[in-house]
Specification:
alpha+beta, 2 helices, binds zinc ion
């Protein structure tokens, strides 16, 4: 794409003329990532004498493997030959605490259902921080 972009830029700077310029991403099927870009350029004042092109730029880059369906790209050298195991991101533990009793529970605890909505608050963060604030772990669900 760059040579054409430079061509247009030089032309506009040198002549002060206008260039009709359009870049249309083209993707195949349901792909998230465009397979390429249709670039069209046409200089207005001299009816295309200066700039007149219609090119299709493939969305490829040397040394990069692009998955057009997902938009993900990897360096070809680092492309895994076999699927690597995905480690799920460690989730912040979340708790439900009761303002009134100052106890906190696992969200799955059966006592959570008994907490009045006005006393109940969901919390995501560390257990230690809750204890520092004076909350006591529930004896039933042992969060
Ligand atoms: Zn509990």
């Amino acid at each position: 794409m760059l040579p054409f972009e430079n061509q247009v830029e030089d032309y506009v700077q040198q002549t002060g003329n206008h260039v009709l310029y359009r870049a249309t991403p083209i993707s195949e099927g349901e792909n998230l990532l465009a397979s390429g870009v249709l670039m069209e350029g046409y200089s207005v004042e001299d009816s295309g004498a200066g700039i007149c092109f219609c090119v299709y730029a493939f969305n490829v880059q040397l040394g990069v493997q692009i998955d057009y369906a997902t938009g993900e790209s990897v360096l070809a050298d680092e492309a895994p030959s076999e699927p690597t195991e995905q480690v799920p991101p460690e989730e912040e533990p979340s708790y439900v605490f009761n303002h009134n009793t100052r106890k906190f529970h696992r969200p799955s605890c059966s006592s959570v259902e008994d907490i009045k909505p006005s006393n109940r608050e969901d919390y995501s963060g560390s257990r230690e921080a809750l204890i520092e604030q004076g909350y006591v772990p529930c004896k039933r669900c042992r969060p």
